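One thing: could you explain this record?
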Amino acid sequence: MIVLADISLATPFGALLALGVVPVIVASLISARRNARGRTLLQLPPPTSGQRVTLVAVAAVPLLLGAAAAGPVLRTHVGRRVRTDAQAIFVFDTSRSMAASAAFGAPTRFSQAQAAAINLRQAIPEVPSGVASFTTILIPHLFPTPNEAVFNSTVEEAIGVEKPPPPFFQFGVSGTSFGPLATLRNQGFFDPATKRRFAVVLTDGESGPFDPNALSQALTVAQQVATLPGRPIPAVVAPVSLLVVRVGTGADRIYHGPGKIEAAYRPNVRAAEDAAALASATHGHAYDIAQLAAAGVGLKQLVGSGRSSLQGVKTKTMALAPYLVLLALLPLGVVVRRRNLTAI
């Protein structure tokens, strides 16, 4: 968050009240000089510090009241820096295997992925981030936004295991395929003007067969498209860099109750290799869920720095006059005490 502040005067002419202190100061200086000459002639000691304090207090009261009459207002402008050159999409594997866990009642792979995404989003607070999910097709849930609250609520409430179910189940094709990730680049998941695009893929790595070279071609190799119909004006489509976070272990199972394991599910022994191959194909990095802190550092380094603008600016105002009036009571109290109470 960026906080800027300034002070302005609502009624500047009210400060003229402070001129009332000028005669007091002039009279005090004249009196002080006259008294100093008298003390010198009479060889009396100089005035005590208490007399000087009284003079300062007498001068401070009209000064503070004059400042209050000027109507000072403190304005604070609170906003946040938002990257204008970069966007990120957090892509969740929502296949059946993401319901697996280390034990009955333990966090599922999917719940671990949700927590990891919210944690990693905090590593790049200035980068607008969106949410997508995939099994055998890639589905957008939230387009990149700088609003972290919207991002978090989407991650926690809008997606889930097999929500929606993979559309190819009806044809006998189950599980996950990394192939649909190829559509990240040119199917509207990012703003067309965004030059730096990143995808954080949260998966258990249990994909069906996929072609790393095809994904590399689709996501990283230079592509051009015509920007205007009938006019061959090429524009380079920015590549997408992947950061893969793998959840789950080979010991995980899908539990339906204490000791009740889904017999049809068996972990894929090549999951870690496939996740690494996916990241390597796009010149990205792969991390295990146990390396989440390192993944956050890696994501921050991957995104780097770039152009940003101040957005979502909110202005708050606070009148300072009441505080100045209260402050004026302090020197006034000093004057009253020294002139009246000490004389009793």
